[in-house]
Amino acid sequence: MSIDFIYHPALVPGEDSPETNTLYFLDSQLLLKQEVIADPLNVTPWTTESIAMEPELQLLLGQVNGSPLRVVQLPQCPPGWQETGLRDYLLMSADDMFKVVNAAAQLRYWLSTQNFCSRCGTPLEFNDSDKALTCPGCEYRSYPKVSPCVISVVRDGRKLLLAQNLGFRNGMYSCLAGFIEAGESAEDALAREIEEEAGIQITNPRYLLSQAWPFPHQLMLGYLCDYAGGDLVIDETELRTAGWFDIDNLPELPPEKTLALTLIKEAVRVISAEEAS
Ligand SMILES: [Zn+2]
Q1: Strand, helix or coil at 270?
Q2: What pLDDT is recorded for position 154?
Q3: pTM of this prediction?
Q4: What proportion of the chain, given as a percentage, has pLDDT over 90?
Q5: How far is the CA of 172 from the centre of ligand 1 (A)?
Q6: How far does the centroid of ligand 1 lie from the alpha carbon of residue 116, in Å?
Q7: E strands within 157-236?
Q8: Ordered domains of the chain (ranges, CATH)
Q9: What is the pLDDT of residues 256-273, one digit of tens each?
Q10: What is the DSSP letter of 4?
Q11: Residue 58 Cα, ligand 1 centroid: separation in angstroms?
């Protein structure tokens, strides 16, 4: 199924109508029908089905295949619907459907944290001319939040530096990553994060691609880079362990559809191509 999605250019609640598609949330959980979970590659997570329950939040996200698409947060799970985590849906869904859910989840989270003006305390209002919530008291505008992060696999010869975050619940190893500070370039952030977390210096950062990551509103900028010096000493407040792994003997890696796995696969491809030439 082809999904054509267009963002709505302003912030308006939208309305329930027979043509309107709605993506339902219960806090950060998606609400899905069993037919979506049974066939997530072919059945969209949004539906024209109306639910008779007063929403906690509602927003017109845009248009999907020519029809309006709303995001609605409900106070409880209606009978016949199932709560589904975003990560679980990411792993099962088609990329173009997840792209829409990704946008919806980020805007839902942001809206749920923006009730009052942070300057004067007046309740914020929707805005039909700009993609922002507006304060009727002081005209302050609150725009949707996106937090840029850098993520990279570091290469030394045919070995890759991979680490286990303290937050990982399984034995998976992944790339090092961190938030970009105010005033920093992405390349500055990459060098700082890797030195802080692993004690090593890098060189030759090459941007590969990015991924919007709705946990809750990151934009991950993916890089490959090379080892330049230093001994591996981990920051134990962030990492459980880290190590250099030969590309023929990699540990358990992140799941499909993650930018981390894409970066690791690209590093392996580059090294293998060099060795073959
Ligand atoms: Zn204000």
Answers
A1: helix
A2: 98
A3: 0.91
A4: 95
A5: 45
A6: 8
A7: 159-165, 176-179, 201-213, 218-229
A8: 5-113 (3.90.79), 116-144 (no CATH), 147-276 (3.90.79.10)
A9: 999 999 999 999 999 999
A10: -
A11: 22
